[in-house]
Amino acid sequence: xxxKGLELYTEHPEAEFAVxxxxxxxxxxxxxxxxxxxxxxxxxxxxxxxxxCMEIISTPLPTTTWTIPWIHIxxxxxxxxxxxxxxxIRILQEKKKIERKDIHVIAVAGDGGTSDIGxxxxxxxxxxxxxxxxxxxxNEAYMNTGIQRSSSTPYGAMTTTSPPGxxxxxxxxxxKNMPKIAAAHNxxxxxxxxxxxxxxxxxxxxxxxTVNDPSYIHMLSVCPTGWRIPPDxxxxxxxxxxxxxxxxxxxxxxxxxxxxxxxxxxxxxxDYIKGQGRFRHLKEEDIALIQNRTTAEWEELKYLCGxx
Amino acid sequence: MAKPMEQYKWHELNxxxxxxxxxxxxxxxxxxxxxQKPVWNDSKCIKCGLCWLYCPDAAIYQTEEGFxxxxxxxxxxxxxxxxxxxxxxxxMVEDVR
Lengths: 308, 97
Hints:
The structure holds two protein chains of two kinds. By secondary structure, chain A is α/β, with parallel strands linked by helices. Chain A has helices spanning 6-9, 29-41, 53-58, 78-94, 111-116, 119-128, 178-183, 198-210, 224-227, 234-243, 269-274, 284-304, and strands at residues 45-50, 70-73, 104-110, 133-138, 189-193, 215-220, 249-253, 256-261. Chain A has twelve helices and eight strands. Chain B is of the alpha+beta class. Chain B has a domain at 29-94: 2-Layer Sandwich (Alpha-Beta Plaits), CATH 3.30.70. In chain B, a hairpin with a 5-residue loop joins strand 2 and strand 3 (68-70).
């Protein structure tokens, strides 16, 4: 393998834990992000996954894409089941029923399973302080049932339940700031990541893996089907989201904010919005509104990082 | 899977729908979703491995000489490898079958 540096993050870069043959759409960056994350977690991992895109495309009975223990659970309780698994492993190891080794428990859910339906289970698990990593795969709508709005859908986006028209602009509310909600629980590690920046993602997953308390990773996963973009541009749009400041890459370690990739000077938000079918109906003044909000949020983040 | 998926009956499934084979999605070939396939130009390839890293289907593998190829049984033809290849060594061509 020529990819220098990969061995810093993972012992076996060639090992696949999300094997070929899954039914993800062409150009799905969500399974790509999970594939990269699992490379760092390694084989001693147990995954609890809420209903969502990744669950339906990976395990239509009787096949499974995962080569690690995996459990499918209802929409609400990804974090609750993961904390149960973590407690069970801890107690079995204390009673010497199973071998004592480092077993990582991860909970994976989409943006609907995290910011709408699973929020209270997540909040409870973060508060109880279980040692697990929660990965939110944010594709900005309920894509698996055919693109319905979630509280993570950005302002102005077209979905089937927020259609644009004469009286409507599409999604009428702003995106919920989930990483900040997770950081407000005072957990040791919260980070945002994007598979378009693989080494940034590897470093963050590795940090999340090593902390002894809950950690939260918010991963932007570009969805070509729901965002109405060509599948080969999935990585490109992830990069644009970061470079325009729509989705800044940062981490919160013990309450200290740090920007891990500074895209300054920010590119205009129009670069990100113009090519996407879900924002096709937006007029110049709407884009200006989004630009103002994005700039303000970026300045706020810089203030939190102590850069201003 | 012991036999093709459509031949399974409900009473042959495990209790709790437990799948006891590891990663048996490999037996489901997604290659026939494809309309375009990636073709490598090895004279331009710098063997960086970005195509391997960015493939959502984990369908790209390294040959013994260090060049990369797609496993056409699984490649869905999304074109990410061709788009992200910095030296432009990968071209998407129509897949005629």
